[in-house]
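Table 4 source record.
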Amino acid sequence: MAETKTETTAVETQSQQSQPAQQSQLLHSSKSAQGGRSDLDINMAIKSLQEETQQIFELIEMERTYGAEVSNQLKQIIMPLNLSYHIKPESISKTDSSISDVVLTPQGMVCVFNNAGSMISRPLESFQSDVLIRILLEVIPEIKVMLNEKRQKMSGRVMTLERVAKELRKVPALVPSKSATTKGNGTSTSSGDQVVVEGARDKSASSQDAMKSVLDKQ
């Protein structure tokens, strides 16, 4: 019995002595695993930053390209109209209260006036995209109205010319054709020798009446 107790005590003593060593190994392994995961997380985060940065650079370049294209196309539209457009000062800057007026010229220059009376002009394409978008939101509706008015005026002129042309087609020519006519002596006469046309005065009067009736309808 004494020997059995002695052996049991020895085994327990050895087990107790081995436990700190095992715990130390487990703790070291856990720290190593955590360190490996931390390095992996950092590498993945850095890779994600690189991808985001690359996309931002690409978007910046696209924003610059499209901004310049939109500005050039807008100038091609407003230049033939030869009109200027007033823009709200807050569309240029929401914080600068010294701006009194902003004008977009037909040449695509943005003139910024301040309360002191000075003026700064900048090309439309030099503004940031958010400012450019606010300018477009103001200018495009005005351009649409002006183009509509211009189209209506041109349509009226075209309709007038069309009616006049139709009435003039009904009026016979008062000048004979260039084909030579033969005189009684057998010689031919050129078109410069005008021949008296019977009823020329009546036809001329009818032409004037037709023109007058068309113009009276306007």
